[in-house]
Write a structure and sequence with these properties.
Distance between the termini: 11 Å
Number of strands: 5
Shape: globular
CATH architecture: 3-Layer(aba) Sandwich
Strand content: 5-15%
Strand order of the largest sheet: 3-2-1-4-5
Order of helices and strands: EHHEHHEHHEHEH
CATH class: Alpha Beta
CATH topology: Rossmann fold
Helix content: 55-70%
Number of domains: 1
CATH superfamily: 5'-nuclease
Largest sheet: 5 strands, parallel
């Protein structure tokens, strides 16, 4: 069985701005080929927004800011084989129930629905999905819906290696 990490913006941003869990996310990028990573298209824009907010708040300097944006654009461009999930009408509509059931915001509900849909496809091939997030609501809701979650802020590199296997 191969695990496909689905990274939401709360986890992916740790790759580009230093914060709790950054080393764990960096390790994930060493361990997992890009063609096994899944990201939400809107989440990519959210990562850029996080980088810009960190710079505007003075939390990262101009050099670090420029490096972060350059690294992000290099790792997530059209030539990199990352699996990008887009939100269409049917996906958004299928996520409505999660807003009420789990008190999720709209983006988290769509991420949960798309992660469940991706997991269902992967499971037919004997593989599975690992939702990588630091979002408290997703960390609570996803396991209730049958997903395995990993929180890079609260779990270690050893934990990640144990989940990913050899």
């Amino acid at each position: 069985m191969v695990l496909f990490p689905y990274l939401d913006a709360s986890a992916l941003a740790k790759r580009y701005v230093p914060e709790a869990g950054s080393l764990v996310v960096d390790h994930l990028f060493v361990r997992v080929p890009r063609d096994r990573m899944i990201v939400f298209a809107v989440g990519l824009t959210e990562v850029v927004s996080i980088i810009v907010r960190q710079h505007n708040a003075g939390l990262i300097g101009t050099t670090r800011y420029q490096h972060a944006l350059h690294s992000f654009r290099t790792e997530f461009n059209a030539s990199v084989p990352v699996r990008i999930v887009s939100a269409d009408g049917p996906l958004a509509e299928a996520a409505y129930g999660f807003v009420e059931t789990h008190s999720l915001n709209s983006t988290d509900a769509i991420i949960l629905r798309s992660a469940l849909d991706s997991a269902a496809v992967l499971r037919t091939a004997g593989d599975d999905l690992l939702l990588v997030t630091s979002d408290r609501r997703l960390l609570r809701a996803a396991p209730l819906e049958g997903l395995t979650v990993f929180n890079p802020e609260a779990q270690s590199i050893a934990d990640l290696d144990g989940i990913l296997g050899p």
